[in-house]
Amino acid sequence: MGKCESSSASIGIKILLTDLIYQINENNFSIIKEMLVNGFIEDKNDSFDEMYQGIIDCNYLDSNNSNVNCLDVKEYLINELKHNDYLFDKELLVPLKIILNIDRWGYDRLGTNSVSRLIDFDLSVNIEKYKEIEKIKIVFILEHNSG
To answer: What is the pLDDT of residue 121?
Structure first.
């Protein structure tokens, strides 16, 4: 059976997990939860994101679970992220605006896939909903998934 590889370029947010987790409170819990679920670890060629996804795939961050106490989630994340290759010191990337993407289906192949787009689009992103989150940086993100 074949597999799919996809790559995308986007504009997004970058923040140190330590800075993000310590900011969790009742007022910003839903937006931070969304960031944690939609984001991934900037890990170049390491396997930090795989460990991170294992931690994030929990009942605490399930969008259908509205009975979760934000302080319990904060404590859970601090403990899990500190005890798993110290992910607490890693940076989280959260894509906000996809500029272009490409998928490649099939078995392992050699060669280059490519995609292009005219530079006729706005590079700005609306970060109004993140205004209460401190220490975020707007960055260009290149993401590659294989599975």
So the answer is: 85
Rounded to an integer, the average pLDDT of 24-50 is 91
> 6-30, pLDDT tens digit by residue?
899 999 999 999 999 999 999 999 9
Nearest CA-CA partner of 61 in 82, 79, 76, 78: 76
Q: What is the 3-state secondary structure (H, E, C) of the chain?
A: CCEEEEEEEEEEEEEEHHHHHCCCCCCCHHHHHHHHHHCEECCCCCCHHHHHHHHHCCHHHCCCCCCCCHHHHHHHHHHHHHCCCCHHHCEEEEEEEEEEEEEEEECCCCCCCCCCCCCCCCCCCCCHHHCCCCCCEEEEEEEEEEC
Q: Give the predicted TM-score (pTM) of the model.
A: 0.89
